[in-house]
Amino acid sequence: MLPEEVRLKAQEVRDAARRLAKHSSELRERADVLMREAEAAVAALRETMQRTVWRD
Amino acid sequence: MAEPKCPRCMQWITPDDTLAFEGNQVFHLDCNRPRDLSPEERVLLSKYCGGHAVAVCRGCVQDFRQFELGSDSLGNRSHFCPRCRADLTAHLREHLYSCVIVPSQIRVRARAAREAAKRLVKKSSQLRDLADVLMREAEASVAALRETMRRTA
């Protein structure tokens, strides 16, 4: 009973919301990976310093 | 491109800032001196570079050892040229990452840590931009639906 145009627009809203939710979690995951990489790089530096700097 | 904001000082975090991490948050290690040396960089400079010049002031055409650099605790500044007061922090860092006296393994690790932090800030900005585009698309489609409903109702 709904006009075709309205149904189409409602479908587009639903698709856009779905896309937003899906990509948002992907983006969050990518940001988390970058954060973990940065933390790991600092940890690796500290570990290397512990082994090298304080040994001399 | 919108850069992330530090949750402590609410200022933008730029790729050249020195960062700290806690849980899922990134913030300035020192909000008053966002580009200051990290504790690791300080240790390395003091351990390996205490006996030679570490920064050149291009304006004054003079190089300085660490102890000769100016520091101003009230103004939250450090590592500046004692003559013209230009900030030489970036030169100090540049020196550390290229000084042959620092073991190469440490230099590689130190550079990797700084680059990972830079990458984090840059990519975070790109991801935030992408999220903004998706949000605007979703809003635009809701607006288009409402407009169509108004016309056809």
Number of helices of chain B: 3
> Total number of β-strand segments of chain A?
0
**Inertia-based shape of chain A:** rod-shaped
Tally the beta strands of chain B: 6
Extract low-pLDDT stretches of chain B: none
The number of helical runs of chain A is: 1
Total tally of structural domains of chain B: 1
Structural class of chain A: mainly alpha
Radius of gyration of chain B: 22 Å
User: Mind summarizing the main beta sheet of chain A?
Assistant: none
Which value, in Å, is the CA radius of gyration of chain A?
Answer: 24 Å
Which strand order does the major sheet of chain B show?
1-2
Most extensive chain interface and residues per partner: A-B, 33 and 37 residues
End-to-end separation of chain B: 40 Å
Query: Which secondary-structure class do the elements of chain B indicate?
Result: alpha+beta
N-end to C-end Cα span of chain A? 82 Å
Mean pLDDT of chain B: 90
Element pattern of chain A in H and E: H
What share of residues of chain A is helical?
Answer: over 70%
Beta-strand portion of chain A reads: under 5%
Amount of helix of chain B: 40-55%
